[in-house]
Amino acid sequence: MTTQKVHCVRCGSADTRVTRIDQTSADGDCSRCDKPFHATPCQLFGGFRIDGSFGEPGIRFKILPETVKCWDCGHRNPLRDPGPENTGADA
Q: N or C: which end of the chain has fewer CB within 10 A?
């Protein structure tokens, strides 16, 4: 693993606080969307700087993509399940 930066899997923000990290996953809290997350690394590069499942920071995709991009190597990874949103509102 070449980076300790972990992007939020919900919104894609890099403004995160990592509480646990190893080579297979990372846990943390996002300051942008104020939610906990469980991230998996890029399948090719091994880093955690990956697009969020909902796209741009703070904005949800209307239609979720099948893959998300690694910001370190550009590899397209399968979409990760960010977990329940529990906000009661869709963007």
A: C
Tokens 């995160």, residue located: 16
Residue among 58, 51, 59, 56 at smallest CA distance from 80: 51
Span 2-26, pLDDT tens digits: 447 899 888 888 899 999 999 999 9
By CB atoms closer than 10 A (0-12, 13-18, 19+), residue 11 is buried
R_g over Cα of the chain: 12
- pTM exceeds 0.90: no
The DSSP output letter for 58 is: T
CA 61 from chain center: how many Å? 14
